[in-house]
Write a structure and sequence with these properties.
162 residues; alpha+beta; three-stranded antiparallel β-sheet; two-stranded antiparallel ribbon; 3 helices; tRNA processing
Length: 162
């Protein structure tokens, strides 16, 4: 009869009291697990991961391979993009009563910002500006047809996101 180690039997788990939010990203040969919450929750998750790994694979996994980094509240960079968490205010008004005050809900949404240097480089390659970002005016641009404008826009869009 094999008994389970005491760390697997969790009688009172304080880690999952709130609604946890986990995000997993794999890029190249690296994996990123994002945990919403406080630093203490991330430390507990790291400890549980190490213990489950050792129990399941019978292999000692060193904890120096797992790093916990606190992401700033305003913005952070990842894979060349700058991400910003902004508050989005939604106004709600009930139509049942005329004099009912409006209610505002605040949602946080993640906004990605393309780095300005890569945008300037792309626009310089397409001939819209020089390497410093100063616009280049061409007379030929004023005579483009609608289809030509859409084709140029489509070409720039594909260079940015494809």
């Amino acid at each position: 009869d094999i008994t389970k180690p005491s760390w697997i039997i969790l009688q009172k788990c304080t880690f999952f009291r709130k609604k946890p939010s986990f995000h997993y990203v794999r890029y190249g040969n690296k994996s990123i697990l994002s945990v919403g919450g406080i630093y203490h929750s991330a430390e507990k998750l790291k400890y549980l991961f190490l213990k489950i790994w050792q129990y399941h694979f019978h292999f000692l996994f060193e904890s120096y391979g797992i790093r916990i980094k606190k992401i700033p509240n305003n913005c952070f960079t990842f894979l060349g993009y700058t991400f910003d968490v902004q508050n989005k205010i939604i106004a709600i008004r009930a139509k049942m009563l005329e004099e009912l005050p409006g209610t505002s809900l605040i949602n946080k949404e993640l906004c990605s910002i393309t780095p300005i240097l890569s945008l300037i480089g792309l626009l310089a390659r397409e001939g819209f500006c020089d390497a410093l970002g100063h616009p280049i005016g061409k007379l030929a641009w004023s005579t483009l047809t609608d289809e030509g404008i859409f084709n140029r826009f489509d070409q720039i869009w594909r260079n940015l996101f494809c």
